[in-house]
Amino acid sequence: MNRIILIALVTFLGFSAQAQTKKNKNLKYTTEVNGNCEQCKKRIEKAAFSVPGVKTANWDISSHQLTVILNEEKSSTADLNNAVAKVGHDTKEVKATQKDYDNLHTCCKYERE
């Protein structure tokens, strides 16, 4: 009887330990995004949140740094950069098309390289 209880206990503990191992698929990613104002901030963050798997997005006006927490199982950093470029803002990795840039409000137009 003691042997059965011991086997049951070891089996239960083995399954419990295995169930608690959780792999973290979230990535904290920071990239430079060109923009000027509060309107740019809203547009850039909205574009970031449109990407599946983005949990947080914050663009700092003064440093031009976009910081996101992204679930790598749902999308990639390339998807994020493409979404931001699609709304007219150049990133370090992807440049917005001239048409998308031209659609920006006058105060949002930044000096392009």
UniProtKB/TrEMBL annotation:
The keyword Glycoprotein does not apply. This is Metal transporter. Keywords: Signal. One of its GO terms (molecular function) is metal ion binding. It comes from the Bacteria. It holds the Pfam family HMA. Residues 26-92 form the HMA domain. The keyword Signal applies. Residues 1-19 form the signal peptide. InterPro entries: HMA_dom, HMA_dom_sf.
